[in-house]
Amino acid sequence: MLSRPTLPVLLLLLLAAAAAISPPPLFAQESEKAERLPAEWILRYEQCWGVAGLYVEEPPPAASTDEAARVRKDLVALTRAARQFLAENPAVTDVTQARLLAGGYTETPFEAPEGMEYVFSPKTQRFLCTRGDAYDIVFGAMKQLQAAQVYRSRVNEGSPLLYRAWGELEKDPELPEIMRREIETRRFAIRMRESGPMKAAEKTQELLGELNAAIEMATSLGQFKPGQEITMPDVGRTGLIDLLEALPLDGKYSVTKAGEPPAALFGEVRIPYDEEYPNRRLEAEVRKYLAEHPDYPPALALLAQLQSAEDAVETLSRAIEQWPDVPALRIQRLATNARLLAMDEIPQDFEYLMYRFPATPICLEIDMATRKDVLRMPGAFRARLAATMAEVRPEVLNLQLIAFKELIASGDIEGAALVRDRLIERHPGYEPLLPDPYRLEAEAERTADQ
Questions:
Q1: E strand spans, 29-125
Q2: CA 183, CA 178: separation in Å to the nearest integer?
Q3: What is the DSSP string of 178-219?
Q4: What is the three-class DSSP state of 125?
Q5: Cα(45)–Cα(50) distance, rounded to whole angstroms?
Q6: Measuring CA to CA, which residue among 436, 444, 432, 450 is closest to residue 139?
Q7: How far is CA 269 from CA 212, 263, 266, 329, in A?
Q8: What's the rounded Cα separation, in Å, for the pair 12 and 355?
Q9: How many Cβ atoms sit within 10 Å of the Cβ of residue 175?
Q10: How many helices (H) and strands (E) does the chain have?
């Protein structure tokens, strides 16, 4: 697990990223009435998932002993300065720190560690360290790409790091109500799903599924005849299941006939194998909660997860009437409309979120909710969403990568090139790692001609 960043590192990241957050050029009429959440809180929220891989630029070195990270930071700054110098002085080929300093392209000289030297490479158009390897900015960019995948996984799956970070945020007396409700909504769903009875129900069905698969296999192999009366020792003698884990809560396995689902006995209660049972059990618990707390938005949001898409939209709209500014509710309604391929309904929540709360986890959830390979959503539609998110948050690495991929896939080569240029301007180390969209287009045309 990655360690939590120190307070100075967080402050540096907040200062570096806050200025980059800007609303989209157009946003929904409803959004115009909403107050923009201060950038500081947006950044603090998204950093609950960690900071490694979050931004285009590497985070400041976590320790003064991380010499390679400090060198890469210097080389990124020098390379950016050198490229600006070359753009304004195209006749010059020999770039030195002295020239950059004299021309005002850097404010102070960058001192390499003892035994090393910073040198400009005309071939790569970037500053290198004579040590190479981990001291190269391309190495740093590759590390960020790898860490970006880890960050995205945390958004998908959650982590103990995240839940602790939420707890720390909630201790802040200045925490905006929108964020308090956002955390409350997400935590309610986690708490209900992770409760003892729900975990027991899920584990029971998982084990019954293993037993059912063994019985079906034995029947297909001719070891049982359909409808034959069987016992648990009969199943064991097939050799198709070595050791079946004990059921939770002292439950007992029960089988009757081959072809009929096995069951779990809890005293007088018999629960047959049924993949939908955990969801029905959870829905019953949520409805019981709503009977005692009518129209509680987090409970309505969890109920919507268990309903058909059409019913879920109505339920979520009820929740949003109560808490109109909570991102978790908006993103869930957006995702539900995406399942329905109701593209006309998506912009109202998308544009509201981009104006009100464009935190990276929210943007990544939008990407997951509208992924076209699952939904057959038009590529141009997804590309437009991705490009907007990347423009609103130009400093977020995952959003630039998503936009780059989607724009290429939709045929918007110029848009993809703009995203790539923006990313490389912030960190030149990505240049050899991301293909030139115009080159990809030319190669595709040559292949088509052949």
A1: 118-121
A2: 9
A3: HHHHHHHHHHHHHHHHTSHHHHHHHHHHHHHHHHHHHHHHHH
A4: coil
A5: 10
A6: 432
A7: 19, 10, 5, 36
A8: 24
A9: 15
A10: 21, 5
Q: Which amino acid is at 221?
A: L
Query: If DSSP codes are grouped into helix, strand and coil, which group holds residue 19?
Result: coil
Give the alpha-carbon dihedral of 382, 388, 390, 394, to 10 degrees: 180
Question: Can you tell me which residue has the tokens 């995406």?
Answer: 338
Fill in the amino acid letter for 283.
E
pLDDT digits (tens, 9 = 90+) for 189-201: 999 998 888 999 9
Report pLDDT digits (tens) over 258-313: 999 999 999 889 999 999 999 999 999 999 999 999 999 999 999 999 999 999 99
Fill in the DSSP letter of residue 431.
G
Return the minimum-mean-pLDDT range out of 35-39, 201-205, 233-237, 415-419: 35-39
In angstroms, rounded to a whole number, what is the distance separating the alpha carbons of residues 370 and 75?
38
Residue type, 246: A
Q: Would the CA dihedral through 444, 448, 449, 450 be positive or negative? A: positive
How big is the chain by its Cα radius of gyration, in Å?
28
Please give the structure tokens belonging to residue 113: 């560690």
CA 126/CA 76 separation, integer angstroms? 8
Helix (H) or strand (E) segment spanning residue 449: helix 437-449
Q: Which two tokens stand for residue 340?
A: 């329905």
What pTM value is reported for the model?
0.85
> What's the angle, vertex CA 296, arms to CA 291 and CA 302, rounded to 5?
90
- DSSP letter, residue 112: P
Residues 6+ apart with CB under 8 A from 123: none
